[in-house]
Amino acid sequence: MKMNFPEATPPEPDAAEAGRLLFAGEVEFLKGVVAMSGLPPADRIEVCFAGRSNVGKSSLINALTGRKAIARASNTPGRTQEINFFTAADSHYIVDLPGYGFANAPLAVVEKWQRLLKQYLSGRPTLRRAFVLIDARHGAKKVDEEIMTLLDRSAVPFQVVMTKIDKLRRDELDQSLGLTRAALAKHPAAFPELVLTSSEKGDGIETLRAIVAGLA
């Protein structure tokens, strides 16, 4: 029987090399954006990374780009409320969305960020895919499903990336994957493969690079 949302397979050699080359050149921070008027020109392929606070998003972007600190890992989860743009090989924007799940943020800050996020997702024609990061130790939570619903409504295809898979036994990971697959079944914009990653061990990074490089 075919499994819904199977694990993405390792890339073919040509795809792996394209992914390597994309991130082997210059990857630089371009700007942080707090309003739509500050967005850079929509003149290249764009992917964005979204995830709740403490999901390991900064670590994943650092691993993806092969840089140790291109994405800042804040000691205060959710502190950075900017949409951060990075350039890769003069052909891609890598976009780091603020962590969601604002347990300690003022309501006004949350509402402002949510408005900006909705405007960005619905008004960015070059956005090819959103990558929604899910902590493998917990599986998809309500706050993750809220961002998935927003992506559905914005007609933005999204793919789930499981983080921190090295922290679980295989049986624990399978349980987490089951919860996540059940959540994804309700979301029409979900891409039908999961990427399993560990920033610490390097698992899945080659696969993710190849996926980004393969988007046209």
UniProtKB/TrEMBL annotation:
Top-rank taxon of the source lineage equals: Bacteria
What is the protein's name according to its record?
Answer: Probable GTP-binding protein EngB
What is the documented function of this protein? Necessary for normal cell division and for the maintenance of normal septation.
**SUPFAM superfamilies recorded:** P-loop containing nucleoside triphosphate hydrolases
Extract the InterPro entries matched here. Answer: G_ENGB_dom, GTP-bd, GTP-bd_ribosome_bio_YsxC, P-loop_NTPase, Small_GTP-bd
CDD domains associated with the record:
YihA_EngB
Give the UniProt keywords, A-Z: Cell cycle, Cell division, GTP-binding, Magnesium, Metal-binding, Nucleotide-binding, Septation
Q: Which gene encodes it?
A: engB
Indicate the segments forming the EngB-type G domain, all copies: 43-216
Q: Which family does it belong to?
A: Belongs to the TRAFAC class TrmE-Era-EngA-EngB-Septin-like GTPase superfamily. EngB GTPase family.
* Cellular component terms per the entry's GO annotation: cytosol
